[in-house]
Structures are given as structure tokens and as C-alpha cells.
Amino acid sequence: MKQPLLWITGIFFSLTASASLAQTGPPEPGSVGHRVTEKSFPSVFQAWNPIDMPSWPQDSLEERLKAAAKHDLIWEEPVSQLGYGVKLVLGAVWDHKHGGLATGFTAESQQQAIANRAAMLKMNPDMAFLLEVRWRDAPGSFLPEDSPFWKRHPNGTRVEGWLGGPEPYFMLDYENEAFRANVSRQCRIALDSGVYDGIMLDWNGRLDLIKRVRTEIGQDGLIIVNIHDDVKDGEEYKDLINGSFMECNPNGPGAPKASFYTSWDDLRDGLIFFEEHFQNPQINCLEVWGSRDDLRRMRAATTLGLTHSNGYLLYADPNPLKTPDHLHNWYDFWNVDLGRPLNDCVRKKMPKNRVAERSFEGGVVVYNHFGNEKAVFSFDTPHKRLSDGKISKQFEMQDADGDIFLPATLKE
């Protein structure tokens, strides 16, 4: 539907559609390209770990699939997650006791994972599925202790890796050409399995490794790398990857004292750059950390993603909590069906007296950046503010906040 134009502090503005939304050729229905580019919004992703709420139990496979299917993109990594005792959603398991030496998935788990994938796609046809392949560090059980793929101290002992795992983690020797070949081989196995649409590489990646993975899986496979909002890494990888896992903890109201600290400015600027330069189909995944009860911060993260990208979003627990990372609530705010965007995402920094706005088939999303002036804006017809149900033509919004506005009548 055509949305009413938005007036901000008495100044009329409208965003125009960009040619970047046009496809050179429509992706085949059901293909990963179609699922990514034709999805409805909001579009939420699951990074390893699931919704964590009593109203979304995870005890049975049916319950886990139903909860996962609320998301449009998920990724798993069986070695570490199974080490934590996490029950997987797709559930493909490497066929070797040392996952780094696997030549495939066990036949039983692969068959079940294909069935789980089909069940989730039936519930949510927009879903895409990725496998994290380990390249930087891994649990000690990932390889034999004497493997040449471990990075070692001069005395021959393994170099310690991530400290937050269920067992000791050790660094992998990503300078080793044979190890890089092993990583790309496992990426190819994942895509050939019929379970996964692409690969997730945690940490910030390495150019030589990413090149090898892209060559191995071809142009149709998705690649996302955890480069946060780092434009420098984005410039280096832009011709090879489809998205960034923007695992970030921006400043401002509600910012937890945790790692990956950044600013809303850098988060916005990184998202704009990634949307402009990464390969299609794009799968930028914006994650902001915060308290589950901080609805203002959740709205800011959600509306930044909706106005500035065609990607995915998540508001999740801070990593330093003594619980598995990336657990999250499911918010009513995410249940609204906005449909498809009617204009392109915001491609520039807005003045401090201007909010970012984007129209969708089902409503209008407004985002007021941290540090901006309080916004006063009007629609030419009544709208309902999703966060509190207020119906009006005129609204106010504090900075570091955002909201969704749905067409309404004053009689509602």
C-alpha cells in the first residue's frame, strides 16, 4: 500500500527508491537468493542459541523447531554447542570423533537435519541456514593433540584460545596452508549436504582463508564473517562475503559494561557501508546487547536495522553473562508484519534534527539516532504507535529510540 508521507519538525521529506533494490534477474522461487531478498520484515536471526523464555519451551524437537522458525536466518556449530549440552535445531553432526577431521556428517544426523530444515521452511519459507566452520580456535577435542593443525608455542605446547568454552580451547594454525584447505573442504561438505545455504566464520576472518572458502563453495553459497562494524575489514572482504555478523555493544542509554564496545555512530556507518558494498544476496546481521527489559534499546536496535538495511537483527544478552551467549527474548514488537519495503534503506548520516524513516507495505519505521534532538513529526493521516498503541497524527520521540507506526483511524 502507499504510505502517507512523513513530516519532520515541519520539514517535508521522502525517501526515493534506489536502483539497488532492482534485481538483474529474479531469483528462482525457493532458492536461497529468493528467500533472502523477498523476505518480509522485521527479520530476526538466531546466532547459535535460541529464544530463552518460558512461553517458548525448548524441551522437544517440535518446540525447538517452532521457536527457531520465528527467525529468518540461523546458524549452528555442532562441536562447541554440543559441548555445552545445547540441543541443536538442524542437528547435523560431524562423522568423526575429532570434528576437524570429519569427511561428512553422520548419515542419521544429516537425514534428520534435512527433515528439520524442511519442517522449518514449511513454517517460515523465508529461512536461510548456515554452518559455523571453525578456523581460529576450537575445543581441544576438535583435533588430536598431536595434530599439525594446532598453533603451538616454541616449546611445542598448544596456544590457548577462547577462555569461555565448555572445555579448554586452543588456537588453530590458520597460517598453515593444509589447514586452510581443510577448512574450505568442510565448507564444501556443508553446502553439499543439502542442509546448509552457507557458511559462518566467527571472529574477524582472514583474507586468504575467505578467498579459499569462496572459491570452494562458489558464488551461490552465502558467507558471513564476524567483523562487527569494522569498515576496514569490510573494505577488505567486500568482493567475497555476503554479510557481517555485527556483534556489537553500542554506547548510550542501557549500554552494558561488556566487550565489543562501540558507538551508535560506528554501528550505523558500518551498516551503511556493508549494505552498499557486500555481495548479493546480502545477509548483514545486526546484533545489539542489552538488558532484556530495556525496550528502548531493543527498539533502537530494531529500527536502526529496519531503516538502514535489508538484513537481519537481534537484541540479545551481553556475552559476559554466565549463560550461553546470544540467548534472547522474543518481543511482541517483532510480531508486526511490515511486509516488503517500499523504498530503499537509508544510505547516509541524517542531520541531528532529522529522524530516519522508511516505508513498508504494512507501516512506517522511524529511528532517532543517539545524540539527536528530540523529534516531533507528523503524518497526514492517523497512525498507531506500535510500542504503546497511541493513535494520532503527531508524535514525539527521544534520541536512541525508534518505533513502528501502523495506519489507523481515530475511531480505533
Tag the structure with descriptive keywords.
single chain; 412 residues; alpha/beta; TIM Barrel; 2 domains; 9 helices; 18 strands; 24% helix; globular; disordered N terminus
How big is the Rg? 22 Å
Compressed to H and E, one letter per element, the order equals EEHEHEHHEEEHEHEHEEHEHEEEEEE
Roughly what percent helix? 10-25%
Q: What is the distance, rounded to the nearest whole angstrom, between the alpha carbons of the first and last residues?
A: 20 Å
Number of domains: 2
Uncertain runs with pLDDT below 50, 5 residues or more? 1-23
Q: In one word, what is the shape?
A: globular
Average pLDDT figure: 92
Q: Total number of β-strand segments?
A: 18
The CATH first-level class of the largest domain comes to Alpha Beta
Strand content: 15-25%
Multimer state: single chain
Tally of contiguous helical segments: 9
Major sheet: 9 strands, parallel
CATH architectural type of the largest domain: Alpha-Beta Barrel
CATH topology of the largest domain: TIM Barrel
Secondary structure class reads alpha/beta
